[in-house]
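Figure caption, in words: inputs first, then the predicted bound structure.
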Amino acid sequence: MLIGLRDALDFAETRNCGIAAVNTPTLELLLAAIKVAERHDVPLIVQHAQVHETVNAIEDIGPVMVELARRSSAPLVVHIDHGETVEYIERGFAVGFNSAMFDGSRLPYDENVELTRQVVEIAGRHGFGVEGELGIMPGREHGPGASGVADETLYTRPADVAAFVQATGVTALACSFGTVHGLYKADPKIDYELIGELRRAGGVPIVMHGGSGLSCAEYRASIERGVRKINYYTYADKAGMDAAKKLLAEHPETHVFCELAVAATKATEENLDALARCLYA
Ligand code: 13P
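Bound structure (1,3-dihydroxyacetonephosphate present):
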């Protein structure tokens, strides 16, 4: 069934847990994520990032996400991740997404405020919640150029947060505090104290990006300080890739892609199951 972003975050607040927000640009990731939500009977967010348009367009994978979420016994949010333009967010809402993130983190502050506010207004007409971003997270979900290491000079400043939340009306705020998108090239050093300060300054749930690749202890300590939505992609998709590589190495005679897809879905599901056991404990 479909639920809103606010409903999912309220659940997390009441249960003192984190909501898994899984990027599902392919059917393999999508089926694995929904199966895990159903098995644990917990709210989960399936999301499509604008950067994954090269994998599948939002008009192609979006309706599949929405339909499977509607049919599911688990409470699911269908969320646009890292929307970089107002037009992209509108494209998502047009195909049934019921939640959005506007990422203006690389824009000048005033422009970020103005565009995020516009998205909050558009989403508000439908009753949808919006995630904004302040502070810069290194890297993208995939592709070259990811440093794999956090840069403290780009962390979110608590002094900016209250004004941003007030001026935009966001439901939740993505912040930079030590995680990075993509593969970690050095052990992550999460600034837990900063998470607590950001949560207190903004008064809204904090969103962790670059959430895959951390330990259960790191998730739980972040949740304790105020993280409520954990964005998760790279290591789930890597688990699928590793399973496909293993199958090919062990069975070089494999000649249909479907066999790789089945192996990848199973491995992705195992990866997400371990995440769910930690986040919703
Ligand atoms: P990872 O790919 O590093 O898990 O990050 C996912 C993310 O933050 C999506 O917005």
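DSSP finds ten helices and eight strands in the chain.
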